[in-house]
């Protein structure tokens, strides 16, 4: 399905590949797009995450869901792991999701 669009809140529908990451803030979600823009919607991140393709998006910590195509590097640090996005920003991976992320991002990238 090439023209698959998901409902992200209000009257907004977007194609999943245009989303770079989702960031939770209580009952609001900030959606960062690949083109550098962002939108704040009053839909919870869990609801939006359930609408996204599971093979393309991964939750790296309690607050953040990342599009796997936006990840450029995965770093294993002594005390924590982190991902580097294509825009050169870094995001920490939670301790509990570390092993899952290593198997998903390190072996398949």
From TrEMBL:
An annotated Gene Ontology molecular function: DNA binding
UniProt-recorded name of the protein: LytTR family transcriptional regulator
Signal peptide: none
Superkingdom, taxonomy of origin: Bacteria
Domain (HTH LytTR-type) ranges: 4-107
Originating organism: Lacihabitans soyangensis
PROSITE patterns according to UniProt: HTH_LYTTR
A matching Pfam family: LytTR
